[in-house]
């Protein structure tokens, strides 16, 4: 008898889940309400799609296991993604000072537009599996609190019930999973939202001639000053372009949509380097603004009962403030958990869905803690405020970041955790704790750690009075 799996959502999480299911199902159908573009073009179903996206090393490693016969790293690089070494290819001003740049090897990350990433991953999955995409709107789940049996969908031809041996909800921030579960009898889902009121504003520029190898540049928000956070970055992406993405929290930190005000905002950041770079660069687009940025988590792993044959992953499970660049990697790690359990137990393995939900929650927990532990410090944040435990963790974390500005050992630990290649316990290893308590062996960097060639590029581009 043919075994069918249905995935709701054809974004990154959905396509990776479909790839995992293709190893054990005879038929995998992906449903999406949008008409998907034929190329790397933005689609309206991704409100954050025009803004900066970072694919961390942990997420990329998970992807490498999911699509048969494809190295996703090589595939994405061939499509135009840029590879950035965190140790040497990034210039970053943190709340505790500038990170130094090191020649030692360290984690890598990929940068590109979200449109390119989704298009490249979708193409790889469709080319190397039997996955099929259908344009349809998922209306509800069928079955009971004990087992999901399919999805009721709306198509151009009307409504129908699509029977399935396994269902994955990867429908993103707008997922109706909680409502669907309640209709099945699972009504004890806990949810939490922590919202700093972050606004993103992004504009694309042509990479200036001679600046093709200029490092990724980021001025991070400082949550500990008691005022709204403001940040900005210059991100190299495909097509010889820079993506310049600004972010600020409610209460006066929000970046503007007006082009002139956009530039002024960059120059008023804690360091004006982003503004100095783009003041001499050619803009290619208008400024795009988005406010879909809150941290929201559904604690599905904690429900008393969980139906067999149903898994929820990606943004449908948890969303994070995009400033921390972890959402895509968490989605990939969730798909990797699904793949591992499917290969071990097959589609019909008893308790499989519950194990996947709990496994996916572990990756969510690490990213959630990193995002929320900073967002709660911004004034005006809704849904959370720092408690005693937060203050203790923050004191240690700030000391570690300060140490990391002049210690490769401490910086390496920070990169490993933020890259999701290891869990937060990496920060509590004896060697890391010792380095943190000892403080940075090198003095704080005065200004951005640029090479002489890079300083020359910055001076040449600078059209400001700074």
From TrEMBL:
Gene3D superfamilies: FAD/NAD(P)-binding domain (3.50.50.60). InterPro entries: FAD-bd, FAD/NAD-bd_sf. GO terms for molecular function: FAD binding. Pfam families: FAD_binding_3 (PF01494). Keywords: Signal. Residues 1-25 form the signal peptide. SUPFAM superfamilies: FAD/NAD(P)-binding domain. It comes from the Bacteria. Residues 5-342 form the FAD-binding domain. This is Pyridine nucleotide-disulfide oxidoreductase. It comes from Streptomyces curacoi. The lineage of its organism: Bacteria, Bacillati, Actinomycetota, Actinomycetes, Kitasatosporales.
